[in-house]
Design goal:
With 431 residues, this protein is an all-alpha fold. It has 19 helices and 2 strands. The chain has a two-stranded antiparallel ribbon with strand order 1-2. The longest helix is centred in the middle third of the chain and has 30 residues. The chain starts with 5 loop residues before the first helix and ends with a strand.
Length: 431
């Protein structure tokens, strides 16, 4: 390995992995919703079919969410990225050639699976190995992903209006992804392999007493027993419900109520820009203030944004929807990640974050439900209001959430012969 300082290694890793997150975000969720109207028009599909593809994309991300934790532990980061690149290549080429719903669904599934192998799971995991101020590093990483959401609709415009064919969007994004994965491999080649294999260690902070951070050694099983972890999972799921719904149908909804395609796409880009800005701001804030408070504010913004989108007939209301959902999405996404680290430490982080993504698979149902309700009712208003109610339910749960605690099992400790490694410590079950 070339002789590069630890600080340069850290920034090389952060920049290359963040760039990949930018590209994969632009290539998938933020752009598919802009491509869908062209596909519906050209191939005469129903909105249910179009929404089902988005559902398969999100479902594939969730169901395969635990696989990167296995490949990273057994094969390492580089081979995990290679698996992701292969899946994405197959998926984007399938979408480029699609003429039937079956190939559309297959392409979405392959792209969704590839997303998990090059996206946030390996990205956030490797960041925990290199940075003490992880909230700030996460903020930068997620900001790049948010900016990818800004670029996604622009790539669709380039392919359709400038190059003359919306299908070229998939070729452009595949080229960008292959380049970004190559850069990540290069950054890994300049990285100390021993450092990558070391389990993340929690930094004991004494200067930020107003921010809770566990001093205890949590295990994966301990964390799963706490209601706090499942409350975080519910918050993460609610933001994905909103995000997949907005990305898949916001442009279609706004154009159907009389907004021009250019303005509707611009609102989606504005939402993505606010999403990106909220992450870098939130990453800094989370170093000094409780991320739980940030999560509560974000959930309220998500709910309000969905109401504004449902009735977005005026430009001011459309801007309100874009800003509220953008900031709400970014802050919820970031605060859930930071809360896992604050409450349970970085030791079980990879497994906990992977399980979080697996649990959030239920959010993949949103596009299908919204598309079906649109076909039945002729409007997106009722499904949008239904989705917007979910963050409010989670807000009530999070309001009563308290940091989890590990307690000694004195009964088992008094009988050494019956002590088992997994039951020496149990998680407190209080919210």
């Amino acid at each position: 390995m070339p002789n590069i300082s630890a600080q340069k290694q850290s920034w090389f890793i952060l920049l290359t992995f963040s760039w990949c997150f930018f590209v994969i975000s632009a290539s998938t969720f933020s752009s598919l919703g802009v491509v869908i109207p062209f596909m519906v028009s050209e191939m005469e599909w129903s909105w249910t079919t179009a929404g089902l593809g988005f559902t398969f994309l999100a479902m594939a991300c969730g169901i395969s969410g635990y696989l990167p934790s296995i490949t990273i532990k057994n094969w390492g980061i580089a081979k995990t990225l290679f698996v992701g690149l292969c899946l994405l290549t197959a998926g984007f080429l399938t979408l480029y050639a699609t003429i039937t719903p079956a190939t559309y669904f297959l392409g979405c599934i392959l792209v969704g699976m590839g997303y998990t192998f090059v996206g946030a799971i390996p990205g956030t995991y490797i960041i925990t190995h290199f940075f003490v101020k992880r909230s700030t590093a996460f903020g930068f990483y997620y900001t790049m992903g948010g900016l990818g959401g800004v670029a996604g609709p622009l790539i669709v415009w380039l392919a359709n209006d400038a190059l003359g064919n919306w299908r070229l969007h998939w070729i452009i994004t595949l080229t960008l992804i292959a380049t970004s994965v190559a850069l990540m491999w290069l950054s890994l080649a300049f990285t100390d392999a021993t450092r990558l294999k070391m389990p993340p260690k929690d930094e004991q902070k004494t200067t930020q007493s107003n921010v809770y951070e566990t001093r205890e050694t949590w295990t994966f099983r301990d964390a799963l027993r706490t209601p706090q972890y499942w409350a975080i999972c519910a918050a993460y799921t609610s933001v994905l419900l909103v995000g997949t719904t907005v990305n898949s149908f916001s442009v279609s909804h706004l154009t159907q109520i009389g907004v021009t395609f250019a303005v509707a796409s611009a609102m989606l880009s504005l939402e993505a820009f606010c999403n990106a800005m909220s992450r870098v701001i939130g990453g800094f804030i989370a170093e000094f203030f409780e991320p739980k408070t940030m999560l509560q504010a974000a959930l309220l913004m998500l709910a309000g944004g969905m109401v504004a989108l449902s009735f977005g007939h005026s430009l001011m209301v459309q801007i309100l929807y874009a800003v509220a959902i953008g900031f709400g999405f970014g802050l919820t996404f970031l605060s859930c990640t930071v809360l896992i680290l604050r409450y349970f430490g970085s030791g079980p982080y990879l497994q906990l974050f992977s399980t979080l993504n697996l649990f959030a698979t239920v959010a993949a149902s949103a596009p299908y439900i919204c598309g079906t309700m649109r076909d039945l009712s002729g409007s997106f208003v009722s499904p949008f209001l239904l989705v917007g109610a979910m963050p409010m339910v989670v807000f009530v749960v999070v309001t009563f959430m308290r940091p989890p605690r590990l307690v000694n099992d004195t009964a088992d400790a008094a009988t050494p012969a019956t002590v088992h490694n997994d039951t020496q410590l149990t998680a407190a079950k209080e919210l």
